[in-house]
Amino acid sequence: MKRGLEKKDLRCLWHPFTQMRDWEQERPVVIRSARGCMLEDTEGRRYIDGVASLWVNVHGHRRPEIDRAIRAQLGRVAHSTLLGVSSESAIKLAGALIRIAPPGLTRVFYSDDGSTAVEVALKMAFQYWRQKGGRYRRRTKFIRLLNAYHGDTLGAVSVGGIELFHTLYRPLLFPAIDGPSFYCYRCEFGGDPGRCGRECLAALDLVMRRHRDELAALIVEPLVQVAGGMLVAPPGHLKAVAALCRRHGILMIADEVAVGFGRTGRIFACEHEGVTPDLLVLAKGITGGYLPLAATLATEKIYRGFLAPFGAKRTFFHGHSYSGNALACAAALASLNIFRDTGVLERLQPKIRLLARLLRPFRDLPHVGDVRQCGFMAGIELVKSKRSKAPYPYAARIGHRVCMRARRYGLMIRPLGDVLVIMPPLAIPATMLRRMLGIMHRCVREETG
User: Fold this and answer.
1) What is the count of structural domains for the chain?
2) Which residues pair with 215 in a beta bridge?
3) C-alpha closest to that of 382 among 394, 374, 391
4) Residue where one domain finishes, among candidates 342, 368, 392
């Protein structure tokens, strides 16, 4: 049966972000069950879920409070549409999200995942300016930041800035205006975050001044460009970007799909610098990692820009079959209750400090170029030469090799190229976190010599 599943996987499945030719040469790991922060495969092998099941799991697997909430909701209704009617769990979750969101965000629009929530934000921003009329109708473009990632649907790719992921699809995309972003380790200023941030902001200000009359919005990942390589913004950078948007009259979209729900040490990354965006995009951890759900939160100013007599055709013509799915909303409400009732963020702070201590030994390894941390998220960049910062050849797949070796020691992680990502569930015990970082340190040493 076990080998039968593996064979069927190779015969039937096409895995995301996976070169299937290589996959066919490997023996698949098939996950059968999970509890807490541990996964178990069909062979009975257990692994620490060091990647939080791709950054979605927050409180651990099979969390009793979320399990009960889903069962209770299933006893009432699994799903009913939000088109023309409403839903009890969707209403309750919207109210809960508004209560914890940055002040001024007052409306919740549901969708299915991070990419679709980004699409919602882009279309809202575009339509908002079109409906203002006059010279504002020219505001149709978005700033695409270097190393940005906002999802894989075509609108989200259009505002993405990762060459490896996005270049191939450029002929399919709408035009965007390129903007600078921070990569302090590899910037021309010798890795000085302060100067890197100042130069980046000056360049962004120039872009906005040149194109302000045609810009609808800037979309930004607050504090960390996660898929771009766990690139951490200099302190104060987000607040300064928000100020630039206000100065030039450009809407700001904050994409907190990856950094929201505690990853940075607060519920939302925007809180760290007191920023309220015009549109806030949420997904991944919103249900605690149980079910697909996303939300785009808008200010009252944006919402009121769509109110008009029916004949004016200012309706936001967008929706999803499973918008506000009742099971997913019930899971999300249970997850927010866990944050509220069990002091998740308070108990996370000592683990953030522990993670910082556990990362220090990596800095001394000869093939670790940079170690970046923001809250309970970190990235370890592996390089061929520490002195010159020269990367490994792409085909060497050193990051992949380290992660595959980690599986032998009971750790499941996934790299971003040659950047090792540390983003476990917030619920991971301190002892397991120590074990996780110990395995990673050992595997880096063994693979890089």
Assistant:
1) 2
2) 141
3) 391
4) 342
* CB neighbourhood size of 325 (10 A): 27
- The structure tokens 């069950």 sit at 33
Q: Tokens 């490896």 map to which residue? A: 164
CB 389 within 8 A of CB 200: no
Q: How far from the centroid of its chain's Cα atoms is residue 310's Cα?
A: 36
Tens digit of each residue's pLDDT (9 = 90 or more) over 62-82: 999 999 999 999 999 999 999
Domain boundary residue, one of 326, 342, 358? 342
Among 66-80, 185-199, 386-400, the minimum mean pLDDT is found in 185-199
Cβ neighbours, 10 Å, residue 261: 30
> Alpha-carbon distance 190 to 184, whole Å?
8
Three-state DSSP state, 383: coil
DSSP string, 368-397: EEEEEEETTEEEEEE-S-TTT-PPPPGGG-
Please tell me whether residues 220 and 279 are part of one structural domain: yes
CB 337 within 8 A of CB 65: yes
- Domain range for 175: 67-342
Q: Which CATH number do you get for residue 36?
A: 3.90.1150.10
Helix/strand/coil for 175: coil
State whether 213 and 225 are in the same domain.
yes
Alpha-helix residue ranges (DSSP H) falling in 286-374: 300-304, 326-342, 344-359
Rg, Å, the chain Cα set: 22
Same domain, residue pair 73 and 180: yes
The per-residue DSSP string of 87-121 comes to -HHHHHHHHHHHHHSPTTEEEEEEESSHHHHHHHH
Tokens at 9, concatenated? 């996987």
Give every CB contact of residue 338 below 8 A, 6+ residues apart in sequence. Answer: 59, 63, 65, 66, 288, 344
Same domain, 264 and 248: yes
Residue 2: pLDDT band with limits 50, 70, 90: low
Q: Do 259 and 282 meet the contact criterion of CB atoms below 8 Å apart?
A: no
| DSSP letter, residue 233 | P
Tell me what pLDDT residue 193 has.
81
- The enclosing domain of 329 has a CATH number of 3.40.640.10
Pairing assessment for the beta strands 38-41 and 46-49 based on DSSP bridges: antiparallel
| Judgement on whether residues 421 and 334 belong to the same structural domain of the protein | no
Is the same domain home to 353 and 330? no
Q: Are residues 144 and 229 in the same domain?
A: yes
Distance, in Å, from the CA atom of 383 to the CA atom of 419, rounded to the nearest integer, reads 9
Q: Which residues pair with 411 in a beta bridge?
A: 48
- DSSP string of 35-60, one letter each residue: EBTEEEETTS-EEEETTHHHHT-SS-
Residues 214 and 82 in one domain: yes
pLDDT one-digit tens code per residue, 316-357: 999 999 999 999 999 999 999 999 999 999 999 999 999 999
